[in-house]
Amino acid sequence: MLNNAILFLIQAVLGLLSFAFLLRFYFQLTKAPFQNQIAQLIVTVTNFAVKPVRRFLPSIGKVDLSTLLLAYLTQIILSTCTLWLKGFPILVAGSTVWFVIVGVALIGILNISLSIFLYAVLIQAILSWINPHTPIAPVLNSLTYPILNILRKYIPPAGNFDLSPLVFIITAQLLLTTILIPLESNLLSTL
Predict the structure, then answer these.
(1) Cβ pair 137, 127 in contact under 8 A
(2) pLDDT per residue over 139-161, tens digit each?
(3) Contact indicator for 72, 105 with CB cutoff of 8 Å
(4) What is the largest distance, in Å, between two alpha-carbon atoms of the chain?
(5) 177 pLDDT exceeds 80?
(6) C-alpha–C-alpha distance, residues 49 and 110, integer Å
(7) N or C: which end of the chain has fewer CB within 10 A?
(8) How many Å apart are CA 109 and CA 117, to the nearest integer?
(9) CA nearest to 83, candidates 97, 103, 69, 99
(10) Residue 86: band (very low, low, confident or very high) from pLDDT cuts 50, 70, 90
């Protein structure tokens, strides 16, 4: 029972930290405005690790490698701790387990990234009906514009309705349920 509580806490804390690192990475990549409370919260929460890592790993153009690396390392730690707390003998399992952990961490990064954009598009679509001038709207627009703009080139509006968010949400859910989740399960089943 104590293992379950510790596992829950580790998954919650490291999952949220990975989410925050990736959100910061995508905010910087899409040039989202940092003058709102949510962006400032993400910067404050992640600065403890991003500032020291940036000394050794600088950005390349718009790509902030330090936040991406930190998100990936957090996922590796999360995968390792999860296996260890579930009773898997990591230290004596051999080198195959490390390939699986690296793969599961990469899938975790892809899963969180897809979820960030999925929920950003969903929240943006809902807010466009309820309150399009909310303070978070510029951040959501900056974050979702690159993806939705590509879809808008191929999907014409139906009357006054933009169908690109709906197409993206369905496609993202399809990718999650048919590719990422089964791939992670297959990797973990090799242990």
Answers:
(1) yes
(2) 999 999 999 999 999 998 888 88
(3) yes
(4) 62
(5) yes
(6) 21
(7) N
(8) 13
(9) 97
(10) confident
Amino acid at 73: L
Question: For the chain, what's the residue count?
Answer: 191
Q: What is the pLDDT of residues 7-65, one digit of tens each?
A: 999 999 999 999 999 999 999 999 888 888 888 999 999 999 999 999 998 888 878 89
- Cβ atoms 184, 136 nearer than 8 A: no
DSSP state of 90: G
Handedness of CA 132, 136, 142, 143 (dihedral sign): negative
Here the tokens at position 122 are: 């969903």
Question: What ranges do the domains of the chain cover?
Answer: 2-189
Dihedral sign computed on CA atoms, order 84, 87, 92, 97? negative
Prediction pTM value: 0.91
Beta carbons of 33 and 139 less than 8 angstroms apart: yes
Is residue 136 within 8 A of residue 38, CB to CB? The reply is yes
Contact call for residues 69 and 180 (beta carbons, < 8 A): no
Query: On the CB side of 125, how many CA atoms lie within 13 Å of its CA?
Result: 16
Give, in order, the Cα–Cα distances in Å from 60 to each of 67, 89, 143.
12, 39, 19
- Helix spans in the chain (H): 2-29, 37-56, 65-85, 96-130, 137-154, 164-175, 181-189
